[in-house]
Amino acid sequence: MKCFPKLIALAIGATTPLLVSAGQWEGPLNGIVSTVIVKGYDTYSASSKILQQQSNALCSSPSEQTLHAAQTAFQTNALDWQQVQWLNFGPVTYFMRYYAFEYWPDKKGVTQRQLRALSQGDPSVMDAPKFWTSASIAVRGLTAVESLLYHPDFAPTQSANHCRLLEKVTSHHFESADAVAKQWQEAKAQDWVFDEEGTGFDPEEVALEQFLQQWIEHMSAVKDAKLETPIGYNGRENLKLAEFYRSDLSLKAIQKNLQSYREIYHAGSPSLYDLAKQINPTLAEKLNQQLTQNVKLSLLLPSNYFHSDQHDDRVALAKPLVKSISSSQSYLASMVTQLGFQIGFNSRDGD
Amino acid sequence: MLSRRSFLALSGAMMTAPSWATITQQDPNATLYASAYSLNKKEHFFGVFDSKGDILWAAPLSDRAHAPVIHPNQSIIGIVARRPGFYIDFFDVSSNQRIKRITPNKDHHFYGHALFTDDGVHLITQENHYTTGQGKIVVRNWPSGNIIQSYSSNGIGPHESVFLDQHVLVIANGGLMTHPDEDRKILNLDTMKPNVTYLSLKDGSIINQASHEEELHQLSIRHLDVNEQGTVALGFQYQGDIRDQVPLLGLSRVNQSHIEYLPIPEDIRIRFKQYCGSVCFDKSGEVLAISTPKGGLVAYWHIDSKTFLGIENCRDVCGLVATDNAHEFLLTSGTGVQLASNPVQNSNKMIKKHTNIHWDNHFRHIKT
């Protein structure tokens, strides 16, 4: 076999810029930050505050009514989280906040075990100045709150210790959510990328590249971890692996995620959709329609879809949505490549 | 098995004393590196580039590859297929020919890495006997490719190995049982037990072996390097929960029964995302570099004092080699960057950015 001579090798090695122009990515980046992230964290922070207040109200006056109000506040807050969950980037990455906001999946029941230990121990330890920032991520956020409000091991209407624990967790959870919201208000996405000195580094492009990578990865997680795994699409069914199954939010969480994807795609001027249309209008439209189709198909699933005593045909019901999300993944990956981004050649396919 | 005709042709190629002069005509002292790279999902190459980052030679490949293997005294370079790999292609750069393809025996595959003995007489590969899942160290004669010895790697999933000296091979048994029928699916996640094994190449006996405590049994020992003082650096890839706080790199010695974990600031450890790419000592053996493509950085340690020195941010970085200068490394990334980095001087220098090239996982320094 004859190999490439030097001239051809040089030609291969020659640098050929793709779509680079200053400020090219400003539209979608700023649009996603302002429309999806800043607004999303503001909403999340506000509902975290309400969750904290309702928890305090529950503990001040324990009753089924105040418990129900706290549970409602939890549900709102957990769904607000779904709006921003796709992005593990920037302020949420500090102090393990991303994993603390929601400790899921929790296959080993770590949250319950640690909550039980905390509720049975000396409550004053939770008042130490740095207790919550250094506490286990399993007890710092929504997964812990859901357990305290829904798990039969905990009875905040009857146990002062359980309720006190709930107040502490929701207080810390609000502080974290609020801190992330404030940091997003005060900074740009470009401020959160790691500077690569001397490499012709464009923070705007890198930030958007990381957004796109996170979006791609989250779409996989929605299809695989949130939908396929608990219903046993490729194996055995275990509905307890579904996200927020105790509070019956598993399907609503997926629906919210899929809705946020359309917002990402259309945020800003120009948006990713606008830019994609300039390069490959057919592909841009296919992705657009598929993202809409995802939302529609998720809304067609029965509201009790993840209930254990319902639906022998759970896998069959999911098939159209699984296929639709798979198509979206392909279209999104193609669009990202055609826009000139290099997503994870080594980081997503190493050994 | 070589045919008589191809053996004679190959022997002829060897007798012409291949040299690197063909591609270094303008600069006989040029420093060369070999790496696989891709232009896109369909176009893949094996190339040689110089210290300016210019590609001087390239050969097309049918797919992405993993790590190059460099003959110590001939202008012959090989590239090992990605796991599960079924070939190593060898090229004579001076004649611009692919001179040989080595394939594993029946029911075996390569792991992506291979190495020549110092004298260039033997080629050593890490292999999976996938019907049993047992790791193998296979010694072949060069250039015939005939297997002359096959030892147990004394573990599962021997990914990479290095020479401690000419008689002792240090093997990173990653612990992952896989079968090519199921691509890279891990078949023993609950029972995996990686180890580092010091194997005698004289008789295949174990000279030393070290592994993690049971609670870290999912911490795959994947890549390694050794310095002249005999310190072996190990890079891990954790197969457990992304949220678990586990060590990601360690040190081992032939006379030490345990793995010593290196300190790493927690904010940096988190950025690794439980994944180390390449492991490399600098020329002096004093500084260790570990890349993480998932984290987009290379982290450095001073080995004697076990001091964390800092990081070099570089997206999708994986390739690492020591340059001829003490404390200096050359980095390659999937974004096309070739970067010189010196963590002691806190300096870096972009060699070149090939915007249309994705440098693959590992590259090697060619001693011309």
From TrEMBL, chain A:
Species assigned in the record: Marinomonas profundimaris
Entry-linked Pfam families: Peptidase_M75
Signal peptide extent: 1-22
Key words, A-Z: Signal
Protein name: Peptidase M75, Imelysin
Subcellular locations according to the entry: Cell envelope
Domain of life: Bacteria
Domain Imelysin-like intervals: 37-293
Cellular component, GO, one term: cell envelope
From TrEMBL, chain B:
InterPro entries: TAT_signal, UCP028101
Region forming the signal peptide: 1-21
This protein's UniProt keywords: Signal
Transmembrane segments: none
The keyword Phosphoprotein is assigned to this record: no
Domain of life: Bacteria
The keyword Chloroplast appears for this protein: no
Name the UniProt record assigns to this protein: Twin-arginine translocation pathway signal
Species this chain originates from: Marinomonas profundimaris
The organism's taxonomic lineage, starting at the top: Bacteria, Pseudomonadati, Pseudomonadota, Gammaproteobacteria, Oceanospirillales
